[in-house]
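Appendix B, example 12.
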Amino acid sequence: MLYVISACLLGENCKYNGGNNYNEKVAAFIEDHSYIMICPETSGGLKTPRVPAEMVGGTGNEVLEGKAAVISEDGTDVTQEFVAGAYFALEDIIEAAEEGEEIMAVLKSKSPSCGAGMVYDGSFEDRLTPGDGVTAALLKSKGIKVLTEQDI
């Protein structure tokens, strides 16, 4: 099995504010497993640190379909970067996986890229709405099981 882990959960300083979301449980869980780290936001061309962003008008599936957007708190449309980052992450996963290998992702909860099940609602007021981030939605659409650090 190949595991895909949000880089911020393993201490990579790629979070929007320049920090990380290091998670001891995820680090211990992955210790004896084959894995790759991804950060779709930086892969899509966003710098660190950056202005926080949330999905507006829908969730990851709607963003991928062009029916919603990812907007930063200052009003900048960063949809293109989020979508590109999701596809770059998928390419990295496909390249790393052996033929027929099962893949499971452990991604950062609530994130507009990686959140699975619940994401911030676009109000920038720490309110959540049901749905997936852009990358989580893309991975799920390809049959990849997606969990968050809260599931570990």
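Residues 2-151 form one domain. The helical segments are 24-30, 40-43, 60-64, 79-96, 134-141.
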